[in-house]
TrEMBL record:
InterPro entries: CXXC_Zn-binding_euk. It comes from the Eukaryota. GO terms for molecular function: zinc ion binding. Keywords: Metal-binding, Zinc. Belongs to the UPF0587 family. It comes from Daldinia eschscholtzii. This is MHC class I antigen. Coiled coil: none annotated.
């Protein structure tokens, strides 16, 4: 399954009388499934005066079936997993064992 991110950020905040900003450095890229699964860079941000410390997969996510190209929308990953049935492929599809890492570039 190929996973695509579905969010955008371009925020400015004032914290302790210090201006901070964050913008997207490179556009979000789809996560391409591989065996075994491998770590991939999904998105890069340019942060000034702030730092990301955690990530929560909120909102609606999108996925495409590998064999069938079935479009799945409105995926909720807040529980850390998602299961569905792909009618075209006649098979169960899932997203599970989610892991992520926030790194300084």
């Amino acid at each position: 399954m190929v996973y695509r991110l579905g969010w955008m950020i371009d925020e400015q905040a004032t914290i302790r009388k210090r201006e901070s900003s964050c913008s997207i450095k490179t556009a979000p890229k789809p996560y391409a499934q591989s065996e075994p699964p491998k770590q991939q860079t999904i998105i890069e941000f340019d942060c000034r005066g702030l730092e990301f410390t955690d990530f929560t997969p909120e909102g609606e996510w999108l996925a495409d079936g590998i064999e069938s190209n079935t479009k799945f929308e409105g995926i909720d990953l807040q529980e850390g997993e998602w299961y569905e049935y792909d009618e075209k492929a006649n098979d169960e599809v899932s997203i599970k064992d989610l892991k992520w890492e926030i790194k300084r570039a």
